Amino acid sequence: MSTTNTHLHIDGISKSFGDVQALKNVDLKIKRGSFVCLLGPSGCGKTTLLRIIAGFEAASSGRLMLDGADITLMPPHKRGFGMVFQSLALFPHMTVAQNIAYGLKLRKVSRAEQGRRVEELLNVIELPDIADRPVSALSGGQRQRVAIARALAIQPPLFLLDEPLSALDAKLRDNMQIELRQLQQKFGVTTILVTHDQHEAMMLADELVVLKDGEVFQAAAPSTVYQNPADSFVADFLGAANIAPAVVSSPGHITLMGQEIALDPVHAVGTKLNAAIRAEHIRMMPLAEANGLTVGTVTFLRDLGPATELIVTVESQNLRVRCDNASVPDLAINSQVALKFDGSRVSLFQS
Amino acid sequence: MRVGLLPSENSSYRIIIWFLAIVGILVSSLPVIVVTLMSFSASSNTGFPPSEFSLRWYSEVIAMFTQEDASSAQSVVDSTVTSLLVAVLVMAISTLVCIPLAYALARGERRIREGMELLFTLPLVFPLVILGIAFLLIAESLRLEIGIWRIVIPHVALVIPFVLRNCIGAMQGISVETEEAAISLGASPLRAIWDVVIPLMRAGILAGLIFALIISFNEFTITFFMYTIDVSTLPIWMYSRTVSSLDPSTLALSVFIIFADVVLIVLVDKLIAGRANLF
After folding, report:
1. Which of A169, B3, B74, B108 is deepest in the core (most CB within 10 A)?
2. What are phi and psi of A304, to 5 degrees?
3. CB distance from A166 to chain B under 8 Å?
4. pTM of the full predicted structure?
């Protein structure tokens, strides 16, 4: 990666709150114009990292480099990063237009220009007629869009979002994710979004940064993180992955739940490993072809419409399985099924 | 149909609630009713209820204000002006002190906030008479000619707990994120307070202002120790008119004051808040 392509360099940032280390030597290079999602469970330090980038929190050590310039000690109001907060934090005593124009007013933009920009942004967020409404009169989705417009009005070099969609209901959230992604591409602004929702992160991100206990576990494109998770935590966190112990049985083969799988592990024979396999990468086979496969009992069954999700218990281990409805006739609770693992989709980690 | 607190059926429960409500209203408004009725009395003694009604005490009050009264040491006009001036100074000082204080306490550590609140509430639990003596001792030992501040300073001490509580209450409704949003858009921390925090605190500040006004304007006990021949307030003047024999014109005057208080409260409320939000 060339240095000119790196917009923000998070250079070895650590943060401690008393004895608690919230961030441990986080090192990330964020590309210009990219959409980065910081993903992790609550308490993983993702919000702390975002607040350090915004300048509301000081790092204990490390540097922040924006376009090669050190901004570690720059106060937040001088950074000019647009931020959307979890609570949205719209100004309740101002109208929609006053909210959006606030940053421009601070920059001493002329009134006429302010009005023009507000109108332009309201058109972009497809709410042209609400300029004079108080923010208390808006619906959840409208507030969301106004908060985004307010942050983008100042044409920020960095656009920061702290779980902005978490308060919306599922359908609206889906729509907003698409809109947010389209807006980001339209403005071409480098964007960092914090979320604990893996689906949201997959939907939005160019680059996914998975954090746990203040450490970056993996930073890569969403498809890479999904297909080749760096470890069992990432695999588990990215949803619906089954983690099971496996052993290297012979060079080029592992044994996973009694099933011999052709793989090319670099580990020595006899090494105990953890294998992660996603629910949709387990195939259901008729019991007649069970030879060499894993056999288990269906203990949970739910038709989700396009697919069926089941839990198959194999020797007290529960496996989540998802399959097309067409491929599984006559499934019932307590029936025996044979499972075939797709060897190319199994990820192995040191246990 | 709504299910109310009051059962629609006649029951002893319903009667008790009505009884309590009426007793409450009577107790709190009885003095106002009695004073107002007696101020319209035609006789010069203060028997209740008045046998005849007239406006003679009202014309006497108006005469007191319009004609120079050389006989009394401190005229009612001077006392009224002093009272108003004290009240305005107390309102201004207590608000200027309490807004930053409330901000710091609400944003700071919880333990410190509770300790400080307790500290500023001390003047309220102190017996007022002793507080008056204490302020008098301080003022006399300093031997300073501080004029009206003799009264303003104790009033500020008395008013601050009320103003502070209102301001802290208002602060607690303002999330840090709202302030940070302003900062992220380019406002300096001070500018963010001015643009976002103060406007959102407005209702609480207003309630504090009204408390300050009412408490200062009606304060008697401490002022009784602190007043001098040159600096005296309206409650002191009224007391001096009634201490030997009750002068019904003071009753008429107090009706004026009640009326003026109400007008002032409504006015301040409309001017600053835009909408009523006193309690």
Report:
1. B74
2. -95, 10
3. no
4. 0.77
Task: Measure B195 CA to nearest chain A CA, in Å.
Answer: 10
Q: Using the beta-carbon criterion (under 8 Å), do A102 and B191 form an inter-chain contact?
A: no
- The per-residue pLDDT for range A141-191, each reduced to its tens digit, is 899 999 999 999 999 999 999 998 887 888 888 888 888 998 899 889 999
Distance (Å, whole) CA B13 – CA B10: 8
Phi, psi of A311, deg, nearest 5: -115, 125
Token representation of residue A127: 């709410």
Calpha distance A302→A322 (Å, rounded): 10
- DSSP element (H, E) containing B77: helix B76-107
Q: Which tokens is A2 given?
A: 């060339």
Pick from A19, A133, A144: nearest CA to A88: A144
Q: What is the distance between the alpha carbons of residues A290 and A339, in angstroms, rounded to a whole number?
A: 8
User: Hey, are the CB atoms on A85 and B177 less than 8 Å from each other?
Assistant: yes
Q: What ipTM, to 2 d.p.?
A: 0.79
Using an 8 Å Cβ cutoff, are A46 and A40 in contact? Answer: yes
Q: Which of A323, A336, A316 is nearest to A278 (CA)?
A: A323
β-sheet bridge partners, residue A275: A244, A348
Per the CB < 8 A criterion, the answer to whether A273 and A351 are in contact is yes
- SS3 string of A291-312? CCCEEEEEEEEEECCCEEEEEE
d(CA B149, CA B216) in angstroms, rounded, equals: 13
Q: Which residue has the tokens 């401490």?
A: B222
**Cα separation, A120 vs A135, whole angstroms:** 18
CA distances from A39 to A160, A208, A211 (A): 14, 7, 6
Main-chain dihedrals φ then ψ at residue A243, nearest 5 degrees: -110, 125
Q: Is pLDDT of B279 > 60?
A: no
DSSP, residue by residue, A29-53:
EEETT-EEEEE--TTSSHHHHHHHH
DSSP letters spanning A56-100: SS--SEEEEEETTEE-TT--HHHH--EEE-TT----TTSBHHHHH
Give me the helix-helix angle, A111-124 and A96-106, nearest 10°: 130
| Residues in A touching B183 (Cβ below 8 Å) | 56, 76-77
CB contact under 8 A, B182 and A151: no
SS3 for B78-140 is HHHHHHHHHHHHHHHHHHHHHHHHHHHHHHCCHHHHHHHHHHHHHHHHCCHHHHHHHHHHHHH
Model confidence over A96-129: pLDDT tens digits?
999 999 999 999 999 999 999 999 999 888 888 8
Four-point Cα dihedral A146, A148, A150, A154, nearest 10: -160
